[in-house]
Amino acid sequence: MQVSTKKKRSSNNSSSKNSSFDSNDVRPNLLDSAQQVGVELTESQATLLLSYLELLNKWNKAYNLTAVRNPEDMLYRHLIDSLSVVSWVKGKKIIDVGTGPGLPGIPLAILFPETHFTLLDSNGKKTRFLTQCQLELKLNNITVVHDRVENFRPEVPFDQVISRAFSAIENMVNWCDHLVDGEGRFLAMKGLFPKEEITSLPEKYQVEESHELQVPGCDGERHLIIIRKI
Known about the structure:
Layout: E1 2-5, H1 23-36, H2 43-63, H3 71-83, E2 93-97, H4 105-111, E3 116-121, H5 124-137, E4 142-146, E5 160-163, H6 169-176, E6 185-190, H7 195-199, E7 205-213, E8 222-229
Parallel strand pairs: 1-7, 2-3, 2-5, 3-4, 5-6
Antiparallel strand pairs: 6-8, 7-8
Helix pairs in contact: 1-2, 1-3, 2-3, 2-4, 2-5
């Protein structure tokens, strides 16, 4: 198992308590924080990410899409957290399981326009929001699926399954096993290093890589665990 630790300078930006959102105010924070996680955003990518953030902030007030209410907190805890795994996103077909309001799927789709992302969630109000994002942001490389993962059967396997949603990695690999073949990978985005969860993995799976992530604006630990079938 390959283990790496990425050391990056932490952000000194404090979170505003104002629920209003002005993309001109936070654009420098987005560009700087993305750079800290190794992502050089183009102006068009930054504009799309901020437009997505505006939609998320607007819809969240009515539909409770995320427990994070402050849009600047959303910037760090949702957008930058999603961008922190960019270095390990590979392949042409990726599925984000339990995507919620599109995390990390929509930020990654903006960064990888040549990769097709399937965004799957069983919550109807969240998939309606995702469809609206697809239309307004003109994201032609995403497919929104309103279904439970165990019921969804893709025509061809995905290259990667990524998720921030599963409380246990064991559940992720068991419920998503049919989504990848022997060449596919599971990318589990976690908080604290999930030692016990890794120990509980079924024998047919193996941790291939483990990365500690330094996410500006997020005080807690963040880890990416990459798993393959044996």
